[in-house]
């Protein structure tokens, strides 16, 4: 039978040796013979064992970490802990956040630790260790946010912390335009993975909005700041649209796609994006509200009614009187008028619309 100390040591060993790797963390059923499983970077632990590990970590946090001054944190950063009795405070808080991703006190302690490193970095010429520390923090967040952990993937605390860490990294690291674009694209992959694990993940996509604004304000060698903002949005248009078409029920994804188009003032690209969404809905008979809300809002916002006319071309217009009750384009549900028009198209051309 696993004891709290054993459960804590199992997880402490994983996090202590993680370095900069992204782990896949999962809660496994208690019916399995073992309460802890590891296969490479994939870690499984039962809920009971995680609770046991958390109780030990919390006791250590209250006893060792909470009383620490800024000087103590700087000393802790400079020391290399090798024995299990003197585990780094970072490992203790990592276990706590695995159990409770909204533990603000543990998260704040990690910020204090990183700030101490950044402050030290500003005074030293060697920035490599601090950059590595911040990058390791980002991979820790990715371990939480890209694992099948229901709360972590949609945790406002985790996403806010990730944005803060990236902000600190950009403060001390001068990146080229190409490097910033690669960074944004890599962050999008993390957000899309979190969106798959937790549908309608508002916090993940809102993080991408905030990241776009952060990168747009970052000092680069680009003279035209408005053009830089457009470039940052441009590389996201197609990847996000592909994801939305694979997850057409996800309103958060569609809302983010509209945000990208608002920051990418190319009417041809906007028309092509809306057209792809419309053709998908037309060809598979999709009636879901999320996609049609995107189409309606984007068409009206960007004045692209002709895109709908081209995709759902009819010999005759649909009389308002023939639209289904409550779907005549009322201000409350304007997207339903678009769907009603598509239904007439399906009826006219024999398109099945069984897909919901």
TrEMBL record:
Record bears the keyword Repressor: no
One annotated GO molecular function: protein prenyltransferase activity
Pfam families the UniProt entry points to: PPTA
Keywords: Prenyltransferase, Repeat, Transferase
Organism: Penicillium cinerascens
Family per record: Belongs to the protein prenyltransferase subunit alpha family.
Assigned GO CC terms: cytoplasm
Protein name stated in the entry: Protein prenyltransferase
């Amino acid at each position: 039978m696993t004891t709290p100390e054993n459960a804590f040591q199992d997880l402490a060993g994983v996090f202590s040796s993680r370095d900069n790797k992204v782990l896949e963390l999962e809660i496994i059923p208690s019916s399995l013979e073992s309460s802890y499983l590891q296969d490479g970077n994939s870690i499984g632990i039962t809920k009971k064992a995680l609770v046991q590990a958390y109780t030990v970590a919390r006791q250590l946090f209250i006893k060792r970490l909470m009383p620490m001054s800024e000087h103590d944190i700087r000393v802790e950063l400079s020391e290399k802990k090798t024995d299990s009795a003197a585990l780094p405070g970072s490992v203790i808080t990592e276990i706590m956040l695995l159990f409770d991703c909204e533990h603000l006190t543990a998260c704040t302690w990690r910020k204090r630790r990183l700030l101490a490193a950044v402050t030290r970095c500003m005074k030293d010429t060697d920035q490599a260790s601090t950059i590595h520390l911040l990058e390791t923090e980002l991979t820790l967040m990715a371990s939480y946010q890209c694992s099948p952990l229901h709360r972590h993937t949609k945790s406002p605390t985790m996403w806010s912390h990730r944005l803060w860490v990236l902000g600190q990294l950009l403060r001390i690291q001068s990146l080229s335009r190409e490097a910033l674009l690669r960074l944004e694209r890599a962050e999008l992959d993390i957000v899309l993975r979190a969106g798959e694990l937790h549908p309608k993940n508002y916090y993940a996509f809102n993080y991408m909005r905030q990241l776009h604004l952060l990168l747009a304000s970052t000092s680069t060698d680009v003279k035209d700041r408005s053009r830089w903002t457009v470039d940052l949005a441009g590389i996201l248009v197609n990847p996000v649209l592909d994801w939305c078409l694979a997850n057409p029920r996800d309103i958060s994804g569609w809302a983010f796609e509209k945000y990208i188009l608002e920051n990418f003032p190319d009417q041809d690209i906007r028309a092509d994006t809306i057209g792809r969404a419309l053709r998908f809905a037309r060809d598979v008979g999709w009636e879901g509200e999320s996609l049609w809300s995107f189409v309606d809002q984007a068409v009206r916002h960007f004045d692209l009614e002709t895109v709908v006319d081209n995709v759902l071309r009819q010999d005759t217009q649909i009389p308002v009187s023939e639209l289904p009750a409550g779907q005549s384009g009322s201000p409350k549900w304007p997207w339903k008028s678009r769907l009603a028009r598509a239904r007439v198209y399906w009826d006219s051309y024999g398109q099945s619309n069984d897909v919901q």
